[in-house]
Amino acid sequence: MELKIGKPYLESGKGTVRLCAQVKAPGEQQTKLFFEVDKKWGEYLVTELSDAFVLAVLKRAMKHGWDICYETPMSEDLCYQLTAYGIPVLSGLTEIYSAILLKGETTDLEIPAAGKAGTGFSGGVDSFYSVLKHKDSRFPKHEVTHLVLARNGAASSSVPQKLAREWYDASSKKLAKSAAELGMEYIGVWSDIPDFYRRESCGNGCLIQTSSFIHALRKLFKNYYWASTFRTDVIDFQEYSRTGDGGFIDPFLVPLVSVDGLRFHHSGGEASRIEKVEYIADFPVVQRSLTVCGSLDAGNCGNCVKCLRTMAELNSIGKLEQFQESFPVKKYLKHWTGKLAFELALDHPPFTTDILKTMEAHGKKVPAAVFMKKWCFYTPYRKVREALRDHYAVRKLYYMLKLDEKTGQKHSREMKRLRLEECKRKRR
Ligand SMILES: [Zn+2]
Question: Model pTM?
Answer without folding.
Answer: 0.90
